[in-house]
Amino acid sequence: MELHYIVLAVHLAVGFFLVFLAAKAFRKTRFQPMALLAIGFTIIVLGDTILGDVLKPFATPEVIDIIEEIIEIGGFVVLILAVKRS
């Protein structure tokens, strides 16, 4: 079980570092698609890592998987918008 939390921590650190870089690029350039990249990556990281653990006491594993996938799809849609606008 400890290994799971170590991998989760690394996943969050790398994911939020990516979000940090996108947000920093937006602040520097004020290029709107960079803000969308930061938002999309945030949605994906949160949907893929934290949401499942938060919902565990309230839902079955199948429902949690479906909710996680829907959140991740939303993040990918935001990323697609960012790429299309750049």
Would you summarize the structure shown here?
This protein is an all-alpha fold. It is built from three helices and no strands. It has one domain (2-85).
Task: For this entry, give a set of tags.
0% strand; 86 residues; mainly alpha
Describe this entry's structure for a reader.
The chain is mostly helical and 86 residues long. It has one domain. The protein is 90% helix and 0% strand. The protein has three helices and no strands. The chain has helices spanning 2-29, 32-55, 61-85. Helix 1 (2-29) runs antiparallel to helix 2 (32-55) and helix 2 packs antiparallel against helix 3. It is flat, with a radius of gyration of 14 Å. The protein starts with a helix and ends with a helix. The mean pLDDT is 92.
* Secondary-structure element order, N to C: HHH
Helical fraction equals over 70%
Number of strands: 0
Question: What's the overall geometry?
Answer: flat
Specify the biggest β-sheet: none
Total count of domains: 1
* C-alpha Rg (nearest Å): 14 Å
The helix count comes to: 3
Structural class assignment: mainly alpha
Mean pLDDT: 92
Q: What fraction of the residues are assigned to beta strands by DSSP?
A: under 5%
Q: What is the element layout, followed by pairings?
A:
Blueprint: H1 2-29, H2 32-55, H3 61-85
Helix pairs in contact: 1-2, 2-3
